[in-house]
Design goal:
34% of the residues lie in helices and 12% in strands. It has 399 residues and is an alpha/beta fold. It folds into two domains: 43 residues, no CATH class; 333 residues, Metal-dependent hydrolases (TIM Barrel), CATH 3.20.20.140. The longest helix is centred in the C-terminal third of the chain and has 16 residues.
Amino acid sequence: MIRISRRECLAGLGLAGVAAVRAEPEAPSQAAGPRAPMRLDLTDYRPRSCLHLPAIRVERARFPVIDVHTHLGFSSGGRYGVSSEEMSFVAQPGALLPVMDRKNVRTMVNVTGGFGKGLAESLARFDQRSPGRFISFTEPRWDRLSGPGFGREQADDLARAREAGARGLKVLKTLGLVLREGGATGALIKVDDRRLDPMWDACGSLRMPVAVHVADPEAFFLPTDRFNERFEELNNHPDWSFHGGDFPSFRDLVDAFDRVVARHPRTEFIAVHFGLNAENIASVSERLTRYPNLHVDTAARIGELGRQPRAARAFFEKHQDRILFGTDAVPNGDDTPQQVFGDALYEIYFRFLETEDEYFDYAPAPVPPQGRWCIYGLGLPDAILRKVYHDNAARLLGI
């Protein structure tokens, strides 16, 4: 039998690149002498919890669900490409609808619906083929930003997109972290650039909510070192780090977005990934109180919310009318496991919201993708579940 002390387990979890765990026999032989410490690559470490806890499987949501944050296609210019009307789709309605029916997902919102020709293809493939089951958002044409009259042109594009069937606008982190003046070597475009004001205003006039993603988790803006709690994720994807160079700070991005929300009170904004700051929900709460036109979704952030269950439940109780259900699901593949679409993904979200289960994985196996921790369920009451699952999104989208 091998015994590993609690202190040694904690030390193993805290190492960045290689975890050292000492294996000690129960009755070491004096003649054999001390054993050398075992060396174990952290990527090979697969601890199995010894906790004996009840587990409730929630196969179907208690109330109908509107998933406001899915990705059914992307611009062929790249995940954060500046501009391309060509779309690459990752799913067909025929493959999605059976899963949706099993899980009680009434509607999926495809936030990356593209623009122009790409938007027309998205609408034809999803919204028009299965009315009521799919909703598409459009996206900005960033290639026009450097030209005169971008804001007005974008406002006109939004009006045409709305008439064609688009129900909202999605702004990826292309804005703030990728898009630059004059090409790849210029200064980064700021989130609160005044050239965008006509676009934000048009969304308010057209009653098109804007889902905005301009900042990643706080850890992505810190050095990728042994103190970074998401070391493994960033070490596996070094291009996800926004530390150093001329990247703005995490706080600068969030503050710039908040200035946009304040300048356009008639426009409804969805700060995706739980207000862009699930690690600091006290700050998100203060922002929701300050800006009545701001909303948040749960997409890809139950790993953060579930490790602070008491604070998270209090947040849901206080802001129950402003929280939308979202998963960030990418059907049939994405290189972040928590986003892969399917029964297992939805069941984890339902378990988190509906049960008080303790210490369970926040993403499908094999390895939690964001950090080595587990989460706890919130056990929300039915009145709040109805709003989060369906009613808040239905009101915002005019369903």
